[in-house]
């Protein structure tokens, strides 16, 4: 029978948790410094987590860690870790730990439960909606440009219209993924853009691109260099809808990788919002690995 014992001292669990995360991040292609930064972000507030030892007939078989906190006015739970040791897998302990975490968070008023997966979890979280994926790829040499497609710096005259369209697209991505309501998404969009590019085109360490082909604009790009040590983050590589299905998505990725190298980094990272299977398939086809996948479910589960 699976049982759960809250730990007073979670030092051993934390050491194992951090070791597993480092291994996962480096396996996805991140350098040591970038992996350490990811680990710091992932484990922020870890002292507030409740860690339970999963046992079976008195033998420890794994750990589960949970926390409930306010998220923009809504109480949200999070499974920070759920790990069953190899010899004890596929005996129902994983499902029992997931159910325990859902109940623990629901009892404390959480209306949603989130988890970030760094390795395949089989069918365990199939009922959880995919909110987004963080993907990355190491860029070792300049990619071959796509014939007929060029990338140039965005002009000041083009920036205002681009900013409006990017905010609208960002709100749409958030809502489609089910992360926030439309009103909350608009507020988040305004806050995020004001924080990320306070000086517009002049914001340091940012690259803004216009992609052109057949004599007209086909898309845009926005990248942040040094997002993590050696990593450029692609906030947006967008192909206009009327130009999609023509192979320009790959051209946009090439432009992003060229800008990554020009910015002094060696890896390009993206977030793909849930529900955007076309982008997920594109990134998979060109070698972008999943670093983390975010999923969530409404609580209590009987209400979903």
TrEMBL record:
Keyword Transferase listed: yes
Record-linked Pfam families: Acetyltransf_1 (PF00583)
Enzyme Commission numbers on file: 2.3.1.-
Coiled coil residues, start to end: none
InterPro entries: Acyl_CoA_acyltransferase (IPR016181), GNAT_dom (IPR000182)
GO MF: acyltransferase activity
Protein name in the entry: GNAT family N-acetyltransferase
């Amino acid at each position: 029978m699976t049982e759960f014992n809250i730990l007073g001292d979670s030092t051993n669990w934390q050491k194992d948790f951090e070791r597993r995360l480092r291994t996962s991040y480096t396996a996805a292609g991140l350098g040591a410094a970038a992996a350490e930064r990811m680990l710091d972000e992932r484990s922020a507030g870890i002292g507030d987590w409740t860690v339970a030892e999963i046992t079976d007939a008195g033998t420890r078989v794994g750990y589960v860690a949970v926390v409930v906190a306010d998220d923009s006015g809504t109480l949200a739970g999070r499974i920070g870790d759920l790990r069953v040791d190899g010899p004890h897998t596929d005996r129902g302990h994983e499902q029992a730990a997931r159910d325990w975490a859902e109940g623990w968070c629901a009892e404390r008023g959480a209306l949603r439960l989130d988890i970030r997966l760094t390795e395949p979890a089989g069918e365990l979280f199939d009922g959880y909606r995919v909110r987004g994926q963080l993907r990355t790829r190491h860029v070792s040499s300049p990619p071959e440009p796509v014939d007929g497609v060029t990338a140039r710096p965005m002009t000041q005259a083009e920036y205002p219209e681009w900013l409006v369209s990017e905010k609208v697209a960002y709100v749409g991505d958030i809502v489609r993924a089910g992360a926030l309501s439309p009103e909350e998404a608009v507020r988040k969009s305004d806050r995020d853009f004001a924080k990320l590019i306070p000086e517009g085109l002049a914001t340091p360490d940012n690259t803004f691109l216009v992609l052109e082909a057949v004599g007209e604009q086909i898309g845009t790009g926005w990248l942040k260099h040094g997002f993590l040590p050696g990593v450029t983050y692609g906030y947006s590589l967008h192909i206009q809808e009327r130009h999609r299905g023509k192979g320009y998505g790959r051209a946009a990725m090439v432009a992003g990788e060229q800008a990554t190298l020009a910015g002094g980094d060696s890896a390009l990272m993206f977030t793909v919002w849930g529900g955007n299977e076309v982008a997920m398939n594109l990134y998979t086809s060109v070698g972008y690995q999943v670093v983390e996948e975010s999923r969530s479910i409404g609580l209590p589960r009987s209400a979903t």
